[in-house]
Amino acid sequence: NRNADGRKPSEDEPGTSSPDDEHYLEQWHLREMLAPAAWSTTRGNQDVTIAIIDDAVDVNHEDLSGNLVDQSRWRDTYDEDDDPTPENDLAAHGTAVAGIAAAVGNNEKGVAGVCPDCSILPVRTALDYDGTAADKAEGIVWAVQHGADVLNLSWKETDTPADYIRHSILQVIKAEKGMALWSLLLQVMMEKNQLDHLLDTQG
């Protein structure tokens, strides 16, 4: 038996180490990180929100739509609207990252996310890879203000100023939410010791 969104009832999940997702056996990284063992304890829950701040997220994807937060919390800082969907086939990175983080598990489709019962907050900040530091900083602030518990920032920047990013990180810290900065790859003309110093001085 399955719930309306296609996933198995939660009471069946704690004892399930191997989900039935179509491509699960190809997901070697889950076994490397011992995710199946962790799932015996928890698969996350819908109250944990992971913000995917990236080039776009396909909100109609069959393996993601069941875990998306309410549409009122979606954001596109690149076009300044509430539609984070890709404008072309090249903007697929954020969708892939969202699947790695929290694709719906045990639905016989696609893949299983590391946290398959967590919620996804999609925030689009770029067209393909053409996003500014200001767009990304705005995305960070939006995510924090709209309930994100985890920020996924899978970026690599080499030619944009760090000031906007630095300021947005400060706002995250000052929010005092115990925010997790997951996959924080901030190479935005900011040396590691500068980021460490920033974090240290703020608490």
Structural overview:
There is one protein chain. The protein is of the alpha/beta class and 203 residues long. Helices cover 27% and strands 10% of the residues. It is built from 6 helices and 5 strands, in the order ααββαβαβαβα. The chain has helices spanning 28-32, 35-39, 93-102, 133-145, 163-174, 192-201, and strands at 49-54, 75-76, 119-124, 150-152, 180-182. It has a 5-stranded parallel beta sheet, sandwiched between helices. Strand 2, helix 3 (93-102) and strand 3 (119-124) form a beta-alpha-beta unit. Helix 4 packs parallel to helix 5. It is globular and about 45 Å long. Mean pLDDT is 78; it is low at 8-16 and 181-199.
Keywords summarizing the entry:
globular, 5-stranded parallel beta sheet, 27% helix
Per-chain topology:
Layout: H1 28-32, H2 35-39, E1 49-54, E2 75-76, H3 93-102, E3 119-124, H4 133-145, E4 150-152, H5 163-174, E5 180-182, H6 192-201
Helix pairs in contact: 4-5
Return the average pLDDT rounded to an integer: 78
User: Strand pairing plus helix content: what structural class?
Assistant: alpha/beta
| Main pleated sheet | 5 strands, parallel
Taken as a percent bin, the fraction of beta residues is: 5-15%
Strand order of the largest sheet: 2-3-1-4-5
Distance between the termini: 49 Å
Number of helix segments? 6
The multimeric state of the shown protein is single chain
The level of helicity is 25-40%
- Large-scale geometry: globular
Please give the number of β-strands. 5
H/E element string? Answer: HHEEHEHEHEH
Low-confidence stretches: 8-16, 181-199
Radius of gyration: 17 Å
